[in-house]
């Protein structure tokens, strides 16, 4: 009876449209109409109508050179609204720009979605050579500063479940692939108030990130800076980490965070 009632109110085209969105969430560079047909086994005319309707509504973007459809920033806003943090990007942009002006490196903000960190926005560095990532880029948790930061402030249960489910892919000799060692690294983040990536995914690139909290003291995002290790050597980490933490604290305060529980730069 329950199944019959559920089927009675289901809208098949809506279900298929959500299927398209969920599929594209797994393909950061997007897919063509034909590729979506192969994955979903929907008629080509149905995929074409759905993709173009979602494109017109602003939920998809399209690369005219490759004909790839991809998820748009409008979906990020919906996701943030579901978390109750729909205005975080507007409130974060000025502190991020100030940090960029101080350090000259690219400054990024991202959040935890499932078992990945997702880049929400960035302020480009002012050097001739700087890092550019596309909004929506997925970042692995075990080899990125934001991944470690976002994990560090979860409940012990959520943190341990995420670590247990991780594939500790080795990108190079600096990547942490042992889960016990990784847990110690995550715990260290909470002790000092920031997390680092020491060439753990990309050789020659260092990152420093700090947590952003909402009015309830819950971690909702991470702000971080990335740059070549020549411009971000280890000896500069205390100074740079302090600036990143200052930015994170400013955004947190704009999100209603008032309790002074962040530990900034003990060493």
Automatic annotation (TrEMBL):
Signal sequence residues: none
Domain IclR-ED, residue spans: 74-257
GO BP terms: negative regulation of DNA-templated transcription
Pfam families: HTH_IclR, IclR_C
Keywords: DNA-binding, Transcription, Transcription regulation
Protein name according to UniProt: IclR family transcriptional regulator
Cited Gene3D superfamilies: 3.30.450.40, Winged helix-like DNA-binding domain superfamily/Winged helix DNA-binding domain
Domain HTH iclR-type: 11-80
A GO MF label: DNA-binding transcription factor activity
InterPro entries in the record: GAF-like_dom_sf, HTH_MetabolicPath_Reg, Tscrpt_reg_IclR_C, Tscrpt_reg_IclR_N, WH-like_DNA-bd_sf, WH_DNA-bd_sf
Superkingdom field: Bacteria
Natural source organism: Odoribacter splanchnicus
